[in-house]
Amino acid sequence: MKNERLLSLRNQMKEAGVHCMVIPTSDYHNSEYVSDFFMARKYFSGFTGSAGTLVVTPDEAALFTDGRYFIQAAKELKDSGITLMKMGEPEVPTMTEYVDQKLQQGWTLCFDGRVLTSSKGSELEEIVRKHGGQLRFDLDLCDAAWENRPALIHHPVFVLSEEYAGESVEEKLTRVREEMKKEEAGIHVLTSLDDIAWLYNIRSNDVECCPVVLAYTMVTKDRALLFAEEGFAAGEDTSARERMEKAGVEIYPYDRFYEMLSSVAAQAAKEEQASGIWIDESRVNFRVLKELQKICVKAQSAQAGPVLLNRKNPTTLMKSIKNETELLHTRRAHIKDAVAVTRFMYWLKKNIGSVPMDEVSVAEQIDGLRAQQDGFIELSFPTISAYGTNGAIIHYGPQKETCAVLKPEGMLMVDSGGHYIDGTTDITRTFILGPVTPQMKKHYTLVLRAMLSLRATRFLHGCTGANLDIRAREVFWEHGLDYKHGTGHGVGNILNVHEGPQSFRWKLLPDAGKPAVFEEGMITSDEPGIYLENQYGIRIENEILCRKGEENEYGQFMYFEDLTFVPIDLDGVELSQMSELDKERLNEYHAAVFEKLEPYFEGEELIWLRHVTRAV
Fold first, then answer.
1. How are beta strands 158-159 and 202-203 bridged, if at all?
2. Nearest-angstrom CA–CA distance, 426 and 222
3. 294, 262 in Cβ contact below 8 A?
4. Digit-coded pLDDT (tens) for 512-536
5. What is the 3-state secondary structure (H, E, C) of 440-478?
6. Rounded to an integer, what distance in angstroms lies between the CA atom of residue 237 and that of residue 428?
7. Phi and psi based region of residue 462 (left: phi greater than 0; alpha: psi -120 to 50; beta: remaining)
8. In Å, what is the CA distance from 276 to each residue of 90, 184, 316, 405?
9. What is the DSSP letter of 394?
10. At CA 257, angle to CA 495 and CA 492, rounded to 5?
11. pLDDT tens for residues 240-259?
12. Residue 408, preceding bond cis, omega within 30 degrees?
């Protein structure tokens, strides 16, 4: 099937005179998670992971993905004719280096300019120029070769009230315009879905597990244009449209964005007397960049006009720093979530070996318990339920036909989360289902110690995740171990579960830019792990909130507040490998877990909760 799909794509390439094609994992907004309409890379490669880029030439094909998916991709690409390129590994070229190597003189390179970032598109444009070839970014060859492609669907939009957002649309627009004034920008073009949803306090479910609205926006000193009319037209609720109109936001059809982009940008820049057009080249797509470059070239030929300002979207930092209203509600969301996950743990430990279970059925169990919580909207990502050897696949996705059957032995790793009207959660626990080896307990204890160490860090303001990541990894490095993913990512508020700009990552990614300083109000995951191929995987994840601590002559000290309150499975802990400080941290955490959850449990469940949070 996969070879037939590649053959169909190559036929389309041949008819169009295309010699090399690049298919990223993205939509028109450079989103991490995309709707089915945009899953071209998955369709043509067969690789189901959430990150990767497919490059196809007449005779070869290569799939580039990161360390989270090496094991999964190797399995899914077997016998497909597609070469797995393990990004970041020694002697493995980057995607653009690979294209540079394969592109022959005069060849035509093609990609859909709407689904590739402007920065990556610019790199490829330079490579094509170097080889004397032609670049086609105006073609969507995938569409012609894709049988029964899913439709692009716009769902109804709803307003996130200020009771939960803590700030009005008008206030947020004022803040954005203040930043524009500082940068001398006459217009800001914003295309990233989470930024747009945050700015206008709107949500939807246009992307599974991401409550965002398919939309574009342009902000000038006195106009705000939102291109998302289909979502506002769906359903009978008119409150979202009324709220936008009250804030002075003009609503237009989604598909009119490119038609109006050039004229609005040119007019806004003209009125601002040669001021800049603000974009974030890491977030806008290549077509947007080329459209705006045309405006600037025309203006410069007339010796006047705008210039492109490549700056990080102001909303990126704004939305990462949660206000006190958001924090009040997200704490509530995390308690609801903790109740669901802890009840799942109770059910799992009580019934393993007596009730038939597999990876999918236990995922359905935890999903169902989460859905019972008040204010639940949807999962924040598809639940990862990985038993035994599957735990070594960092972002494993169980399938009913092939999933593993659980036995009263070994370990089950469950990474899950939810969106509530109060906030977004992300938690991983590795559960002990029965007898485990001494090595398993050793590694489980290392992961636990690493998570507790980072969570307990005190640091001076100005530190980034590159500075702090060592607090978790040093536990592994002392034993010659490591893991191929960041230790933590930012978490959105009823938005994307993966959010920038902050993260815990010592190894800087090529396109990541300068590491972000940790600010008060940022929510970040703390999730070290260990993954042994064909053996097992262990990950323990909490969400932590950055707060201000003591300020003295040395500066402003910062610390982390726990948001996640779910028991650690003590059956996996080897106490002899824990220092007194490790035990103190674990006992302190479990005491807080019991205090937070006690009101929600009774009878046998409460007795069990007291036992699993006991001091060690």
1. antiparallel
2. 38
3. yes
4. 678 999 999 999 999 999 999 999 9
5. HHHHHHHHHHHHHHHHCCCEECCCEHHHHCHHHHHHHHC
6. 37
7. left
8. 41, 6, 19, 59
9. T
10. 10
11. 999 999 999 999 999 999 99
12. no
**Largest pairwise CA distance in the chain:** 79
For the chain, how many helices (H) and strands (E)?
Answer: 21, 27
Q: How far apart are CA 485 and CA 131, in angstroms?
A: 35
As given in the structure block, the two tokens for residue 589 are 């955490």
Per the rule left: phi > 0, alpha: psi between -120 and 50, beta: everything else, 91 is left
Give, in degrees to the nearest 5, the angle at Cα 269 between 266 and 275: 145
Q: How many CB atoms lie within 10 A of CB 59?
A: 8
Burial 96-126, CB ≥16 within 10 A → b, else e = bebbbebbeeebbbbbbbbbbbbbbbbbbbe
- In one letter, which amino acid is 385? S
Q: Which two tokens stand for residue 367?
A: 């999903």
Give me the residue label for tokens 């669907």: 153
pLDDT, tens only, 303-330: 566 788 999 999 999 999 999 999 999 9
Radius of gyration of the chain (CA): 25
DSSP for 184-227, please give it.
Answer: TEEEEEE--HHHHHHHHTEE--SBTTB-----EEEEESS-EEEE
| Strand order from edge to edge, sheet including 499-504 | 459-460, 555-562, 542-552, 523-526, 488-490, 499-504
The Cα 2–Cα 56 span in angstroms is 13
Q: In 407-553, which ranges are E strands?
A: 411-416, 418-420, 427-432, 459-460, 488-490, 499-504, 523-526, 529-532, 536-539, 542-552
Distance (Å, rounded) from C-alpha 501 to C-alpha 514?
Answer: 9
Residues forming a β-bridge with 83: 62
Residue 101, H or E segment: helix 95-102
> What pLDDT, on a 0 to 100 scale, did the predictor assign at position 294?
87
Percent of the chain with pLDDT over 70: 96
> What is the distance between the alpha carbons of residues 258 and 372, in angstroms, rounded to a whole number?
42
As a whole number of angstroms, the distance between CA 119 and CA 113 comes to: 11
Structural domains of the chain ordered from first start: 2-145 (3.40.350.10), 158-313 (3.40.350.10), 321-612 (3.90.230.10)
Residue 94, C-beta contacts closer than 8 angstroms, at least 6 positions apart: 64, 87, 510
Handedness of CA 46, 47, 51, 52 (dihedral sign): negative
Q: Give the H/E segment covering residue 562.
A: strand 555-562
Q: How confident is the model at residue 384 (pLDDT cuts 50, 70, 90)?
A: very high
For residue 160, the SS3 value is coil
Q: Among 33, 50, 52, which Cα is nearest to 378's?
A: 33
